[in-house]
Known about the structure:
Elements: E1 3-9, E2 13-20, E3 25-32, H1 37-49, E4 63-67, E5 79-80, H2 83-94, E6 100-104, E7 109-114, E8 120-126, H3 134-144, H4 148-154, H5 169-181, H6 186-207, E9 213-217, H7 224-234, E10 237-239, H8 251-266
Parallel strand pairs: 1-4, 4-5, 6-9, 9-10
Antiparallel strand pairs: 1-2, 2-3, 6-7, 7-8
Amino acid sequence: MKFFGGCDVGSTYTKCVILDESGNMVASTTIKSKINPEISANQALVDCVSAVDGINEIADLAYLIGTGYGRNKVPQAEENISEISCHAMGVHVANPSVKAIIDIGGQDVKGIAIDTDGTVKNFAMNDKCAAGTGRFFESMANAFEISLTEFSNLSLTAKNVIPITAQCTVFAESEVITLVGEGKPREEIAAGIQLAVAKRCFVMAKKAGAVDSITLTGGCAKNTGLKKAIEKVLKLKVIDLHDNGFDPQLMGALGAAEYARQKGLNA
């Protein structure tokens, strides 16, 4: 039996997936990224390899592909492929009916249209500003002095929305701290934050050609409040990949592993 690996070295988290010859996911891991992307990739790969019977080290993988911002630093990788292509392929594997993605990474937001074979049909990216990214949500959670998980659910009980006017992460955090200090309802402030990010996603979704539905990938896909806000703003159904048994944060690594499987089997 041959095994194929994909390692997605992101700015915040590093993910790894190993597939068997039939495309079954036999191991996966998600770790906090280190300052050195090569160390991050090596640790994630070692964690995954150790969970698979039949292989003992990274070199035992029949084919390995790196992706993400640190894709050039994945040890022993045969090649690297952009995270845009890998997210498209990963979502295609998880749910072939999905044709549009909003990928909210640690430092950027991407809108991706998927073709019928899992390749990228079109994409748009906002990497000029941190607002609306994973870093942005971390800052907002810090302003509330709560965890990201708590923040993702906070807006769900809001009866009203307090708009957040600042477009910059630094100023938005200052605005939130001021509103909290004034005693404004925390859930309504959170709803304003989620709505502001959803509006930023609107442009990405349109450029990705989303028509009736879309899915979210990346760690922010686990943000329940954001999902609800996006459905409201975009008037699209947000397909949750969890319903298909997949972690949306693993889509880049899964896509890289699938590309590795296709290339490895045809080598």
